[in-house]
Write a structure and sequence with these properties.
The chain has 363 residues and is α/β, with parallel strands linked by helices. The chain is built from 10 helices and 14 strands.
């Protein structure tokens, strides 16, 4: 009898140990590592009647994402957009979409563009409302706008969990005032003054609560440019908690170049790292080399190739403990009649809203 009881005790202990281990692993995957989607046009798609299907069944888009491991949504914010096509991310729109995100149980990253339209390495247009302002008034406007946005989102019950101050700001922001490379040389002073104003507005709006601030550049595969940028802004007193990188192979190089950058950042920076933008084509199209386009195509631009790309990206991200997340850019893109939204072929759905295999790459 005693031997039987001992065996039962050992079996019970083993089962408990396995359950604890599995639960610990699940929490680490689900809570600590961010699997994110930039779904900034989702509300507009839905407003114009767009629907989504997964495994042959029509489902709510956010349900499809959460069931496939996504725990974060990233939403961009334009100052005063014209609301045409994808340039629709006003504060009111963003708050309403943020409510959907929170209701789905996802966390929220807010992405300030500080422009009325797209801000990226080739353009950082100043909002029309700020045109002609003296630099000191412009700086105060950046602060006040950042502060007011966070306060408004807090009042609406959708306070962001991470705030990205500026989008792909390698060449600066809010041009021409915050342009780094000017005719008479590099102007880091003006750029970082505006950047710090945005960060200050965000932090002060949170009050005693702390929020991770992300600085986002586009140089995922360019170690030299990445090291130089963060060395310079730190020299001008910019304080931040997260480094955000974009990585698209046709713009940013090979997986090896990406890994060299991640390895260097992991060893030399105290901040966490997030691969905050990536995507891959699934419709047969791929950019031809030339100009900004480099001759790198790691997988065929097919549904399977897109899936394989995401599996590889996830594998790379997980190799480096300092990398805390991986975000897909515009996976929700489909055609919705009358919306003026376009279909790039990099979505995780086909034009009609049927989920592609890539949606399950992180399961």
């Amino acid at each position: 009898m005693k031997k039987i009881l001992n065996k039962l005790f050992l079996v019970t202990a083993l089962i408990i140990s396995i359950l604890i281990s599995c639960n610990s692993k699940e929490n680490k995957t689900g809570d600590d590592f961010m699997i994110g989607a930039d779904i900034s046009v989702l509300k507009k798609v839905e407003d114009y009647g767009g629907t989504y299907t997964w495994r042959g069944e029509e489902r709510e888009a956010l349900e499809i994402f959460t069931e496939n491991g996504y725990n974060y949504a990233r939403l961009r914010l334009f100052h005063t957009p014209n609301m045409r096509g994808p340039v629709c991310n006003s504060l009111e729109y963003t708050i309403e979409l943020s409510k959907q995100v929170k209701a789905a149980g996802m966390k929220l990253m807010l992405n300030f563009h500080y422009s009325d339209t797209w801000a990226d390495p080739q353009k950082q247009f100043k909002p029309k409302a700020w045109e002609g302002l003296p630099f000191n008034i412009l700086t105060d406007s950046v602060y006040q706008y950042s502060f007011d946005v966070i306060k408004a989102m807090g009042a609406a019950g959708v306070l962001p969990d991470i705030v990205q101050v500026g989008n792909e700001i390698t060449p600066g922001m809010i041009w021409p005032d915050g342009l780094i490379h000017k005719e008479d040389g590099e102007d880091w002073e003006s750029f970082t003054t505006l950047l710090k104003a945005g960060i200050k507005g965000v932090r002060e709006a949170y009050g005693e609560n702390e929020v991770p601030v992300m600085i986002h550049i586009d140089k995922g595969g360019d170690l030299d440019a990445t090291a130089y940028f963060f060395h310079k802004i730190e020299g001008y007193g910019v304080e931040y908690e997260q480094i955000g990188l974009s990585y698209y192979p046709w713009w940013h190089g090979t997986f090896d170049e990406l890994e060299k950058n991640l390895e260097w950042l992991s060893k030399n920076k105290e901040q966490d790292i997030v691969l905050v933008e990536t995507a891959y084509y699934a419709n047969g199209y791929y950019p031809e080399p030339g100009g900004w386009i480099v001759d790198v195509q790691p997988f065929p631009p097919t549904e399977q190739g897109q899936y394989d790309f995401l599996v590889k990206m996830h594998e790379i991200a997980r190799k480096y403990p300092k990398v805390k997340g991986l975000f897909y850019w515009e996976p929700e893109g489909i055609l919705a009649e009358g919306s003026e939204l376009y279909y790039l072929g990099r979505s995780l759905f086909d034009k009609e809203g049927n989920a592609l295999k890539g949606i399950e790459a992180f399961r």
